[in-house]
Design a protein that fits this description.
It contains 19 helices and 14 strands. By secondary structure, the protein is an alpha+beta fold.
């Protein structure tokens, strides 16, 4: 059976991963079985000893080749390909040399004789010290192989459980029977019965090869592909228990592997209710979920596919998770830019309408008033001249405000213009119109950030309204504007050295009260807060505290 399996693997599966070590293992087992049969069939001590020595080639090397096979099957093939793995053959080679030179030293066996007390004549002997070192070493390798396969059956990948079980049962039968022979366990302790179990073990190995396609579905594919996928991968059974999971999905759930496998998804993912809902609802094949983590929203796309066995039965579901955060943020950024472009276009249209209609009317009134003013001056009519001078000043101020607004709209029509650049232009325009000195205090980080357009526009309008109030009411000679940026939260202050005002009296002055209300409403629209403190004859200080949310564009 072992020879047939080795020949089959060599002829049809020798390119598959693990096939080389499987072929070597089967050839060694065949040598072991044939040597044992020839040892039993011969009657003289010299011939028996020769075939017994041949079997030691299989005794010594088969644990190493079986370990290499199990390591390749369970995903440790990198260790097998490492040249250091060849050192595992060093001790077996020394043992084989000592076996064939036993008559010189007796380190392996000594005091040979023929034992004819049983059904078969066997070699009687005593074991030397190196034999026990060899025995310990061989069974240490065999135990390691079995542990790797047990992990494959009960702990690791359930997708390959039946293949691992076939290997485990086959190897266990060989190892256990050999241990029983060495330590004289059981009723038959004179004869090495290990080769008797090669047949049953070969049946299980044949089942793994032909029925479960051992070499067609090697778990190394999982170790190199699924385990290292950027996408999360999870397998659920019919009871919504997690049977398999890769590292990406495990990191998403944030739980150790022993606390995940074989547990229900409702228990493992209790802190992610959206994921639980998608996994337990068998009608869902595709979904998107979002999770807030440290003030950052992550977006995930989940695809679910049924798992069907060879008989066409539904046995579970495959859950694939993809992190779509970057794509989603880019999409939201694009939509935000589109929205900003629409707003900018509307503003440009409004500015053009104001220029074409209200601007022409104000210009006409201003020209007419100035003409009448000149005529009254010629006629020396003082009363009418004073009233008309007020009308000219009001009209000119209205025109200046309108031009400033139109200029600002045109400036803002260039997307992503920096806040500081626009603010400096606003201050320069104010200084030219009023002659009032303005001190601007800007932290260096402000020169490199871009603020969300809606927040930026409201902040600039609050500063503009404050400067207008100073120009009209404060009679100030100096203004200080100070900007702050702390933990992405923007704040600023506008302070003048003017006449100030009694805060209670503003309720009786509609124009001034309207300006302050406008500032407060603008701040509230973006989630900000404004406080105004003023003392008569000591000036006024306005403080703005921006919203506690993401307002900087990354």
């Amino acid at each position: 059976m072992s020879l047939f399996l080795g020949i089959y693997a060599f002829l049809s599966k020798r390119e598959a991963k693990g096939a080389v070590n499987f072929i070597l293992s089967m050839l060694l087992v065949t040598l072991w079985s044939a040597g044992n049969a020839l040892e039993i069939s011969n009657l003289d001590l010299t011939t028996k000893l020769y075939f017994a020595n041949l079997q030691y080639i299989a005794y010594c090397y088969s644990p190493v080749t079986l370990l290499a096979l199990c390591m390749e099957f369970t995903g440790y093939d990198k260790w097998v390909r490492n040249k250091k793995f060849l050192w595992l053959f060093f001790l077996p080679t020394i043992v084989i040399i000592l076996v064939f030179t036993d008559n010189l030293h007796g380190l392996m066996r000594y005091d040979f004789y023929l034992d004819s007390n049983g059904l078969f004549t066997v070699i009687g002997k005593k074991y030397g010290p190196v034999f026990y070192i060899h025995s310990f070493y061989s069974h240490l390798l065999n135990s390691t192989s079995m542990i790797l396969l047990i992990r494959g059956v009960y702990i690791k990948n359930t997708v390959y459980r039946r293949q691992a079980t076939s290997l485990l049962v086959g190897i266990s039968m060989i190892v256990i029977s050999n241990i029983a022979y060495i330590f004289k366990i059981g009723p038959i302790n004179r004869l090495d019965i290990t080769p008797i179990f090669f047949g049953p073990a070969g049946i299980f190995l044949a089942r793994g090869i032909f029925h479960f396609k051992l070499f067609d579905l090697v778990p190394i594919a999982r170790a190199t592909v699924i385990e290292n996928m950027d996408s999360g991968y999870m397998v659920l059974d019919l009871q919504d228990r997690i049977l398999d999971i890769n590292r990406t999905f495990q990191n998403f759930i944030k739980g150790p592997l022993p606390n995940i496998l074989s547990k229900q998804v409702q228990e493992v993912c209790s802190e992610i209710p959206e994921l639980v809902r998608v996994c337990v609802d068998r009608t869902i094949l595709h979904a998107e979920i979002s999770i807030d983590d440290e003030n950052i929203t992550h977006y995930y796309e989940i695809s679910l596919s049924p798992i069907i066995n060879g008989e066409g039965e539904y046995i579970g579901r495959l859950v694939v998770l993809n992190d779509e955060t970057q794509r989603k943020l880019e999409q939201l950024d694009f939509l935000n830019q589109q929205k900003q472009m629409v707003v900018l276009k509307e503003r440009a249209n409004h500015a053009r309408d104001i220029h074409d209609n209200l601007g022409q009317i104000l210009g006409f009134i201003n020209l007419q008033a100035q003409g009448i003013q000149k005529e009254l001056m010629k006629a020396d009519i003082e009363v009418g001249l004073k009233q008309l001078s007020k009308l000219v000043n009001v009209t000119q101020n209205a025109q200046n405000d309108m031009r400033a607004y139109i200029q600002e709209v045109h400036n803002s029509c260039t997307p992503q213009r920096q806040f500081v650049c626009i603010l400096k232009e606003l201050i320069e325009s104010f200084k030219l119109q009023t002659g009032i000195n303005v001190i601007l205090d800007i932290p260096c980080e402000f020169h490199t950030v871009s603020i969300v357009m809606e927040v930026q526009d409201h902040m600039l309008n609050i500063i503009r309204e404050s400067l207008n109030n100073i120009r009209k009411h404060a009679n100030a000679s100096e203004v200080k504007i100070k900007l702050k940026l702390i933990n992405d939260q923007i704040s600023f202050s506008v302070e003048d050295n003017g006449v100030g005002f009694d805060e209670a009296s503003t309720m009786t002055k509609p124009r001034m009260n309207f300006g302050l209300n406008s500032i407060s409403s603008r701040a509230a629209e973006i989630g900000g807060i404004v406080s105004i403190n003023s003392i008569p004859e000591q000036g006024t200080r306005l403080e703005f505290y921006g919203p506690k949310k993401e307002v900087l564009m990354r």
